[in-house]
């Protein structure tokens, strides 16, 4: 790996530490102090990366094939719940029509997710 890539990695580590410190500082209403602490930790991380010749390794993320079906099932269930909540408050005719429509859309989405789930 080239020297340039190592410097880029060290710079990213510095920026990450700085923002993490600022975020923690915001949680305690002192982003200035958190930013300073984050910068100090970032400079220390840069020094360690340069001294130890730490090199970044590529990360691969593999999602399961059933993720789409799970997502559709969750979305379908949420839409059904929203439709039932609309039906719970029957002040006008509109909530009935909208609630039934939303429940039907949710059932279709849920069934498409479950059908894909069982095919795998």
UniProtKB/TrEMBL annotation:
UniProt keyword annotation of Membrane present: yes
| Top-level taxon in the UniProt lineage | Archaea
Show the stretches that span the lipid bilayer. Answer: 9-26, 32-49, 70-90, 96-118
**Swiss-Prot/TrEMBL keywords:** Membrane, Transmembrane, Transmembrane helix
This protein is called Uncharacterized protein
- Give the species: Candidatus Methanolliviera hydrocarbonicum
């Amino acid at each position: 790996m080239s020297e340039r890539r190592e410097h880029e990695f060290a710079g990213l580590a510095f920026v990450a530490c700085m923002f993490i410190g600022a975020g923690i500082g915001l949680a305690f209403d002192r982003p200035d102090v958190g930013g300073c602490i984050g910068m100090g930790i970032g400079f220390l991380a840069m020094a360690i990366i340069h001294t130890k010749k730490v090199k970044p390794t590529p990360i691969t993320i593999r999602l399961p094939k059933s993720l789409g079906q799970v997502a559709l099932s969750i979305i379908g269930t949420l839409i059904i719940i929203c439709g039932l909540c609309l039906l719970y408050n029957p002040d006008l005719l509109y909530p009935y029509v909208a609630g039934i429509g939303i429940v039907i859309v949710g059932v279709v989405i849920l069934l498409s997710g479950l059908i894909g789930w069982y095919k795998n």
